[in-house]
From TrEMBL:
Classification via InterPro entries: Nucl-diP-sugar_transferase, UDP-D-xylose:L-fucose_XylT
Biological source species: Seminavis robusta
GO cellular component: Golgi apparatus
Keyword list, A-Z: Signal, Transferase
Name of this chain's protein: Nucleotide-diphospho-sugar transferase
GO molecular function, one term: glycosyltransferase activity
Chain ranges of the Nucleotide-diphospho-sugar transferase domain: 344-561
Biased composition (Acidic residues): 76-111
Endpoints of the signal sequence: 1-15
Length: 630
């Protein structure tokens, strides 16, 4: 049988319904053949149950539970042959190992298997009044409980950005148990959501104490869709199928269309966020780039390795890639760090032209210019997000991090529009941090669009621990670089591959807290609006202590410069902007750094409706109907 959970309404779980595998298979033809088996009759006498309502019927306001008489009790796992099944008895050594797990004070005094035996016995006695689901699904759904979302995500770090809503119906997590042995000890003895609700509200630790295996599903929860979640007892899948009411061809949608399986990037308006790369236009172009890179990679590594070994601190470096068009942002980063006393000796710049190479070295940064792979990259700055120059520079971002991984170091990659308040390597190299076990750490982009799901990771600021999982992830990304060309986005392509490697190979991904690693998403929030509407007001008052600021979500380089100037974060003299080293006149006896870097920030007002460290009320507004920040 199949269990449907309806998510329409004020919450993400509004009702349940059951249908047979055969009925579902006939209504929704699938690529995977359903294993349809007759119900076993050896353990239960024939029972006449109420008829199942038709699929086309709307849900009733209050649907009574099916009242089939219960089957006679069978020994636990009588017909189970799964390799995960635990033996009835454990040896003393296993019991001692199990005792070391963190549980409640009472649990610490009792071996795990003994507690589970007691829990199983208690749950068998409670089943008549505690079971939530009818017998047609009792091989994969025998009961359910609730815990709070805040407590669940604090207990189990999912790695993904978590938002806590104060709206009723969005505060909880629903846990469905597949066997009586998985039920928690407090099931049936804890307060319910209301007097008629048999589902229990527990702590996350209590709710999962007997779970040896847990699948976690993140789902839409705002109640605006007429959405159903179908749980099918079938050969296990680790991907979620998405079905929409759409025609076979065309963008239109409507209830008059049948449900059809669609790509995960298909939206309710019929648009698709992902498309396969075209062979001639995208794949062959990526192959040409790869051909040159793979032919030279061994020589490049031989040249790069001694440079990296010289600057690495605790086997970690900071990686940046830059062309001449973006060089003023690179120079300001170096000047800003110098003014704040921050060490940039382990920063490695991958220059994509000779002009940037000369500027980086002159400002005191270690730089590497590989003409074989970067010589044909554009020198100009991108005019806007996603244009041709932007996309080609994204390919250079794929190459430089792959090289860093092959050298064998941990690395922080950051775009040149990132500014430091504190050296972020100290955050990632903190061996006492509760998140130190992750492989990859990404800034939260802020956008919750389909193409960035599920991690919403920003590809302009991330830290990678060097290990087999991360090396293969970056190699896979390199080999699928035609996705970058097709999507015009380094970020959406990276997240798609990141998601698969997390599922398939156990790549441990952590999205960083926006309060500590803010981006342009927060900078452009209207003052007083939403969770981060007062972030910069608090920052100027000293109530926020970020590590960095990434000026993403910004149209072009020129605006980024203006925003940093009115934030008191611009330190590069005007006479050194957009100029080659040979074009910058240096007074006799004056070095490049002393001549181009200011010891104090060079503040200036530009837009009254954007955050500024000082009042800019007399400046024009950038956005339509923009209100003054001050």
């Amino acid at each position: 049988m199949l269990l449907l959970i309806f998510t329409n309404g004020a919450s993400f779980m509004a009702g349940t319904f059951y249908a047979s595998n055969a009925a579902i298979a006939s209504q929704f033809p699938n690529q995977q053949k359903l294993a349809i088996q007759p119900l076993e009759s050896s353990s239960c006498p024939p029972v006449k149950c109420p008829p199942i309502p038709q699929l086309s019927c709307p849900p009733c306001p209050e649907q009574p539970q099916l009242s089939c008489p219960p089957c006679r009790e069978e020994p636990a796992d009588a017909n189970e042959e799964e390799e995960e099944s635990a033996p009835a008895e454990e040896n003393e050594e296993d019991e001692e190992d199990e005792d070391e797990t963190e549980e409640t004070e009472e649990a610490e005094e009792t071996p795990l298997e003994q507690r589970r035996a007691e829990s199983s016995s208690n749950n068998k006695q409670q089943q008549p009044k505690s079971l939530v689901f009818p017998e047609i699904v009792n091989r994969f759904a025998v009961g359910a409980a609730f815990t709070t979302k805040e407590n669940f995500t604090a207990t189990f770090d999912l790695g993904m950005p978590v938002e806590y809503s104060q709206k009723e119906g969005e505060k909880g997590v629903m846990i469905i148990y597949s066997s009586p042995q998985a039920l928690p000890r407090k099931f049936g003895n804890t307060k319910a959501g209301n007097s008629n609700d048999p589902m229990r509200i527990l702590s996350a630790q209590e709710a999962t104490e007997n779970c040896d295996y847990m699948n976690v599903i993140m789902t839409y929860h705002e109640g605006k869709r007429r959405q159903c979640l179908a749980i099918v007892p079938q050969y296990e899948s680790f991907h979620i199928q998405k079905w929409l009411r759409v025609p076979e061809k065309g963008p239109s949608m409507g209830s008059f269309h049948p449900l059809r399986m669609v790509p995960r990037g298909k939206s309710m308006n019929g648009e698709n966020a992902f498309h396969p790369p075209a062979h001639e236009k995208h794949t062959k172009k990526a192959w040409k780039m790869l051909e040159g890179y793979l032919d030279s990679v061994d020589d490049v590594i031989a040249e790069l390795k001694p440079i990296v070994q010289k600057i690495a601190s605790n086997n970690a470096i900071v990686v940046m890639v830059c062309n001449f068009g973006q060089s003023q942002l690179l120079l300001n980063f170096a000047c800003s760090a110098r003014a704040k006393g921050l060490d940039v000796s382990n920063v490695l710049v991958f220059a994509t032209d000779q002009e940037t190479q000369d500027l980086a070295v002159s400002i005191g940064l270690t730089s590497f210019f590989d003409k074989r792979n970067f010589g044909s990259m554009p020198k100009k700055a991108a005019k806007t997000y996603g244009d041709g120059i932007f996309t080609n520079m994204m390919l250079s971002k794929v190459i430089c991090v792959h090289l860093a991984s092959l050298v064998g170091v941990d690395f922080l990659f950051q775009d040149v529009d990132v500014m430091w308040y504190r050296n972020p390597l100290q955050f990632f190299q903190n061996n006492t941090s509760p998140i130190r076990h992750f492989d990859a750490y990404f800034q939260d982009d802020g956008s919750r669009s389909l193409r960035f799901a599920p991690f919403c990771a920003n590809s302009g600021f991330y830290f990678i621990r060097n290990n087999p999982r991360t090396r293969y992830f970056l190699t896979s990304f390199l080999m699928q670089s035609d996705l970058v060309l097709r999507s015009f986005s380094h970020q959406s392509a990276m997240i798609a591959i990141l998601s698969e490697h997390s599922s398939l190979l156990g790549l441990r991904v952590k999205v960083l807290p926006p309060e500590e690693f803010p981006s342009g998403f927060i900078y452009h929030r209207k003052k007083g609006r939403g969770h981060y509407g007062n972030y910069f007001t608090d920052l100027f008052k000293g109530k926020q202590k970020p590590w960095v600021l990434h000026m993403s979500w910004t149209k072009n380089k020129n605006n980024k410069v203006l925003y940093y100037k009115q934030l008191d974060q611009w330190y590069l003299q005007d006479k050194c902007m957009d100029k080659k080293v040979s074009e910058i006149a240096l007074p006799s006896g004056s070095g490049f750094v002393d001549n181009c870097c200011s010891a104090e920030s060079l503040f200036s007002c530009h837009y009254r409706d954007k955050p500024s460290s000082r009042p800019c009320k007399d400046s024009p507004a950038l956005d339509k109907n923009g209100q003054s920040f001050w």
